[in-house]
Amino acid sequence: MNELDTIAAISTPPGEGGIGIIRISGEDAAQIGALILRHPSGRKITSWPERQVRLGLVMSPEGKFIDEVLYFLFRKGRSYTGEELLEIQGHGGYQNLKKILNSAIKAGARLAEPGEFTKRAFLNGRLDLAQAEAVIDLIRAQTDLAHQVALTQLRGELSTVIQRLENSLFEILVPIEAALDYPEDEIPDLEREQVAQRITALCLQLEELLAQAAQGVILREAASVVLAGRPNVGKSSLLNSLLGEERVIVTPIPGTTRDFVAETIDLDGIPVRLIDTAGLRESEDLVEKAGVERTREIIKEAHLILVVLDAGEELTAAEEEMIANTKHKPLIILNKTDLPTVLSVKELKDKFPDYQVLSVSAKTGDGLAALKEAIREALIGRRDFEEHPVLVTRLRHKEALEEALANLQSVAKGLSQQQSEDLLAVDLRAALEALGRITGRSVSEEIIDRIFSQFCLGK
Ligand SMILES: Nc1nc2c(ncn2[C@@H]2O[C@H](COP(=O)(O)OP(=O)(O)O)[C@@H](O)[C@H]2O)c(=O)[nH]1
Ligand SMILES: [Mg+2]
To answer: Do 244 and 369 belong together in one domain?
Structure first.
């Protein structure tokens, strides 16, 4: 792909809207604008005052009038992408915007790939990679808290933390490399004790960042919480009550929920995808069988399982097994407590002393607030994100930090074993390389392409 060509895309979502925006970015943005835009009088546009909103007409290449629009131009180095960028605000509506876009393309622009505007912003140094990723996180944020964390990252706060780590590493690396490059010079011996202390401190910082990463990923991607249990215990009813509205078909006939249904709720800032599953029971019905199979898969991938029990019935062997054999410790939910009960919280606590047991009624709503609190706590602990919004929220970042940490631990070990400078330098450089992948200082083109391809068109 030629990075210098001029790209165009519709930047607003498809569908009806008051206005819709077309962006054209690249060397020829104004030139293309001159071909497709006219003054309201029909005269050609010859001057392009920077960042001033103008009224104009968009014409097709054949000279047909398409739309009355507002437009403004950003000069190279002073736009989102860092390139010359023309923004046209037309009437919102897919046909209209498509026609404007087609005019731009016939006049010489190329249809932008997903995320290509932001990719150019990155390549032109307007944003680093972590900031560019935050752009998409901000757009996709599902809760207030996720939005806040994305914004913090977009403002460069995570990048600053990474850069500080990198600077500290450079400070350690430079004298080591100097000693390697000029061995004959009178360079004092490496103060290993002091370097070891600094490496330990850096490892601690990395460990702190990593300790919160699992929670950060949940915040960005939403936690998946599965409602599991025998048919008819009230899983679908519970999902509806947690959602606060009727979404899932509830019937007294066992096996009604054959596939799974997922809805996202906002648990005090934590996006939680609640997944209602087909009951885990042996069935001859093929559709239901497929549902049960799928349930097992979903349970495997979930962050948290809620095993729902019917308080009106004895605990079955299958239920006991489900509670004991789930990978992460599930929450035990005793439902239908508004009816006469045969199964009690006490009995369950005696049987499963390490598990949390909650008593609820999907019907009356009793115990639901406590259940929501318990879900949130099981997912992220009692952490208050508002105070420390700098979080690692991507697996990509987490893996890079883990690699940097492993390299630094290797440096620490090498120092204690009187390893030679050149070997220490190798590990230090590897740690720097890993950190550089977060901000994009050291990252392959392939990874860059993969990151931006996840973006939406026009961003
Ligand atoms: N009284 C009472 N009935 C409930 C409660 N939860 C579910 N039910 C009823 O139990 C039956 C099965 O519920 P459903 O949500 O379809 O169970 P699922 O198969 O586990 O999804 C329905 O008739 C519900 O109305 C509850 O807390 N109290
Ligand atoms: Mg159901």
So the answer is: yes
- Listed residue (333, 161, 341) closest to 242, CA to CA: 333
Cα of 249 from ligand 1 centre, angstroms: 11
Terminal-residue alpha carbon distance, the chain: 18
Least trusted range by pLDDT, from 264-268, 382-386, 395-399: 382-386
Residue 373 domain-assigned (yes or no): yes
Residues 369 and 232 in one domain: yes
Q: Note whether 35 and 161 are same-domain residues.
A: no
pTM of the model: 0.83
Beta strands in 311-452 (DSSP E): 331-335, 357-359
Question: Is any ligand 1 atom within 6 A of the Cβ of residue 250?
Answer: yes
Residue 186 has pLDDT above 60, yes or no: no
**Which three-class secondary structure string do you get for 184-240?**
CCCCCCCCHHHHHHHHHHHHHHHHHHHHCHHHHHHHHHCEEEEEECCCCCCHHHHHH
Query: If you average pLDDT over residues 397-409, what whole number do you get?
Result: 97
Residues with CB under 5 A from ligand 2 (ion): 236, 257
Q: Which two tokens stand for residue 23?
A: 């962006």
409: domain CATH number?
A: 1.20.120.430
What pLDDT was estimated at residue 177? Answer: 86
The boundaries of the domain holding residue 355 are 225-380
Q: Which of 444, 399, 405, 400 is nearest to 428 (CA)?
A: 405
CA 266 to the chain's CA centroid: 16
What is the SS3 assignment for 31? helix
Where b means 16+ CB within 10 Å and e means fewer, 42-73 reads: eeebeebeeeeebebbbbeeeeeebbebebbb
Q: For residue 313, give Cα distances in angstroms to 181, 305, 438.
A: 77, 21, 53
Instruction: Tell me which DSSP letter residue 244 carries.
Output: T
Q: Is the CB of 258 under 6 A from ligand 1?
A: no
Please report, for the domain that includes residue 300, its CATH number: 3.40.50.300
* Whole-number Å distance between alpha carbons of 312 and 309: 9
Between these two residues, 207 and 180, which has the higher pLDDT value? 207
Residue 449 lies in a domain: no
Q: Is the pLDDT of residue 63 over 80?
A: yes
For 352, other C-beta atoms within 10 Å of its C-beta total: 18
- Residue 231 Rama label (left phi>0; alpha psi -120 to 50; beta): beta
User: Total domain count for the chain?
Assistant: 3
Mutate to test the pocket of ligand 1, among 237, 238, 363 (most ligand atoms within 8 A of CB): 237
CA–centroid distance, 375 to ligand 1, in Å, is 20
Q: How far is CA 66 from the centre of its chain?
A: 38
